[in-house]
Specification:
This protein is an alpha/beta fold. It is built from 9 helices and 17 strands. The protein is globular, with a radius of gyration of 19 Å. α1 crosses α3. The protein has 2 domains: 261 residues, 3-Layer(aba) Sandwich (Carbamate kinase); 36 residues, no CATH class.
């Protein structure tokens, strides 16, 4: 039996401490810091399942592939393979970081990474209206070439053009039986990297990847619901959720009831590309019966568990 099960969703951006210095060694620094706090949770008795984002890392891979294609005629890399690549690379870093952090606190656990496919509906409306930017900025000539190759390209606030893809709703964690078996056996599992590799089944039941990305917070919420976790912990770049973020009226939130969270979400308090999906994921988890969700940054995970910081989303009305 598992006493306390937590799904920890680590943001891809939180693994890059300084966007101006995204070198791999700096990413290792962020991974090691995050893993130290997760190890403290495990030492305190939590059974941990880790998920992670991959937005910046996918962008770097796509940029490198574009340069290689343009300069050396190297073949392109399909987006589903890029997502799988980042599941392996980031998973490896977290896997090693957790193993080392656990040994420092006198614990010996097996940590494993599972390449995870996430089934989506091939008729999801998101495929008709792609809006999720991937890769770097393009010049006009590059954007026109991308359109000729079948990409959807949009202008991004005068800064250039970006390729955009669909972000469909995750429906089924394809490897859920393996994940459950590993968790029950006491392994620390890293899964659903980048939201999972988006796949669909054809009329014969065969899987195939699609050129899309899945929001890792939505995927993490679905995973936490399926595993009946006791906590969904979303680790991001800020210590607390704020209203009127980055304005003179900014105010942080210690706790939100389910009703309050829905009200603020519907009122447009959270940006679509940043805090919105995290609040949405927390709402879905708590609405489905999850006891609580917490949103905070890696350095404050331990304090947030003691209700000293972070933002909690809990069941209830106006509060």
């Amino acid at each position: 039996m598992i006493d306390k099960l937590v799904v920890i969703a680590i943001g891809g951006n939180s693994l890059i401490l300084d966007p101006g210095d995204p070198q791999i060694e700096r990413q290792w620094d962020a991974v090691r810091e995050t893993c130290r706090h997760i190890a403290d949770m495990i030492a305190d008795g939590w059974q941990v399942v880790v998920t992670h984002g991959n937005g910046p890392q996918v962008g770097y891979i796509m940029n490198r592939a574009e340069i290689a294609k343009r300069e050396a005629g190297v073949h392109d890399v399909p987006l589903d393979l890029v997502v799988a690549d980042t599941q392996g690379s980031i998973g490896y870093m977290l896997q090693q970081g957790l193993d080392n952090s656990l040994r420092r606190v006198g614990m010996n656990h097996t940590v494993t990474t599972l390449v995870t496919q996430m089934q989506v509906d091939p008729d999801d409306p998101a495929f008709d209206d792609p809006d999720k930017p991937v890769g770097g900025f393009l010049k006009q000539a590059e954007a026109e070439e991308a359109r000729r190759e079948g990409w959807t390209v949009v202008e991004d606030a005068g800064r250039g053009w970006r390729r955009v893809v669909a972000s469909p709703k995750p429906l089924v964690v394809n490897e859920i039986n393996a994940i459950q078996a590993l968790v029950l056996a006491g392994y620390i599992v890293i899964v659903c990297g980048g939201g999972g590799v988006p796949v669909v089944r054809n009329e014969y039941g065969s899987l195939r990847g699609v050129a899309a990305v899945i929001d890792k917070d939505r995927a993490s919420s679905l995973l936490a619901q399926t595993l009946r976790a006791d906590l969904l912990l979303i680790s991001t770049g800020v210590e607390k959720v704020c209203l009127d973020f980055n304005t003179p009226r900014e105010r942080s939130l210690d706790a939100l009831t389910l009703e309050q969270a829905r009200t603020f979400l519907d009122a447009g308090h959270f940006a679509r590309g940043s805090m919105y999906p995290k609040i949405e994921a927390a709402i879905d988890f708590v609405h489905s019966g999850g006891p609580r969700a917490i949103i905070t940054n890696p350095a404050n995970i331990t304090r947030a568990l003691r209700h000293e910081t972070g933002t909690r989303i809990i069941p209830g009305g106006a509060g």
